[in-house]
From TrEMBL:
Record's protein name: DNA methylase N-4/N-6 domain-containing protein
SUPFAM superfamilies with a match to the protein in the record: S-adenosyl-L-methionine-dependent methyltransferases
Source organism per UniProt: Brachybacterium sacelli
Residues covered by region (Disordered): 375-399
Protein family (similarity comment): Belongs to the N(4)/N(6)-methyltransferase family.
Domain spans labelled DNA methylase N-4/N-6: 26-337
Keyword set, alphabetical order: Methyltransferase, S-adenosyl-L-methionine, Transferase
Transmembrane segments: none
Source lineage: Bacteria, Bacillati, Actinomycetota, Actinomycetes, Micrococcales
Superkingdom of source: Bacteria
Gene3D superfamilies for this protein: Vaccinia Virus protein VP39 (3.40.50.150)
Transferase among keywords: yes
Presence of keyword Hydrolase: no
Amino acid sequence: MTTTAPHPVHIGDNLDVLPHLEGPFDLIYLDPPYNTGGRVVTGYTDRFEDWTGFMAPRLAHLPRLLAEHGIVIASIDDREIHHLRVLLDDVLGAGNHVGTVVWDGSTINSSHLLSVSHDYLVIYAKNHAALKASGTMWRQPRDDAQAMLDAAATAWRTAAGDRAVAQQRFRAWLTPRRSSLPRGLTEYDRIDETGALYRVGDPGAPSVQASRSFRELTHPRTELPCPVPKRGWRMNDASMDRMLETGLIEFGPDHTTQPKLKRMLADNATAVPRSVFRQEREGARHLAGIDGVGEFPFPKDLAVLARWFDTVTGPDARILDPFLGSGTSIEVAMALNLADGGTRQVTGIALDEGGIVQDVLVPRLRHCERTYGQTVSWSGTSSSSLAGKRPKRGSESAA
Ligand SMILES: C[S@@+](CC[C@H](N)C(=O)[O-])C[C@H]1O[C@@H](n2cnc3c(N)ncnc32)[C@H](O)[C@@H]1O
């Protein structure tokens, strides 16, 4: 089981709590009220005379709290995105806007003219230039590559370890799908003796390459030397040794065939994230499935937050969520920690309005403590709610 520090939850108005927090945080996740214009019956206030005036003093704390390599991700929709962008440009610098991602979920707002199905994730870096210069590369799993890996695993399992049968089954799965998959992916159509999916690659060094090997490789069966590419191998002697050791060189039937490089799909199944992604909204359903948790309007989705937390931070990330709401970010960190042995820690701030601390946040996080084996530490004006009492109402704030 993971031994992580407790996730600190502060009950109160984030305007009062933020000045007392100490960074640096690797990620600050912002999910403020979207200013939809009403009070959701059981939940939080979502009408602001002056949303920008509400947000500005809170966002002013971001630069002080962010690590030098830190990232801000803010969830928002069409109503306030333009104001949010201006505010974040002001506090973090327009040049630090990494991009704005569109999450296409199921319809949340229908009208006669347009059925709105998307939210935004606005992403800023504390220092975009330094992040690029450090060679940081964001990666996300590719769904199409994962589908191929799953099909290969099924072919291998049902072929009971017979490589030829597994390969035949996998290709039968692939054939009708070839035209809808990128060519670069469909080249991965071979299954090796361990059941892994791979393609073969040209082993010859390109003419511009500086260091190359001319080593003669001995065929494992005939024990005779195989042909060396005209311009040498594309790897140096040390990488050649590593590849031979890990089985990433494929020999032909005998020494007359030049050996090829094996490229494993599992090592190439990620891609730079795209600015639009589709993910069904499951947050409300997930929350409703937890016993004893009251209603909460529009909790975020575990899968969406997990995908982006994982993309922009490592397994030891310190994360700040000043608009904690029902506590989704804490559940996400707990789930990721349990899955990969990480030590992510989320500091959350929850305004106790509409009874959400006692009715939603506390029961949800208690459930999470049991499920994921990690703990939460509570502080703030409404911690009495933990003893089962009605929490003391925090200030309604401008919200
Ligand atoms: C869009 S919801 C966040 C939902 C959350 N990400 C989740 O998945 O449950 C916005 C939350 O911000 C809270 N909030 C509003 N004003 C706040 C303030 N001044 N300090 C702390 N939280 C506040 C509201 O109570 C509401 O729970």
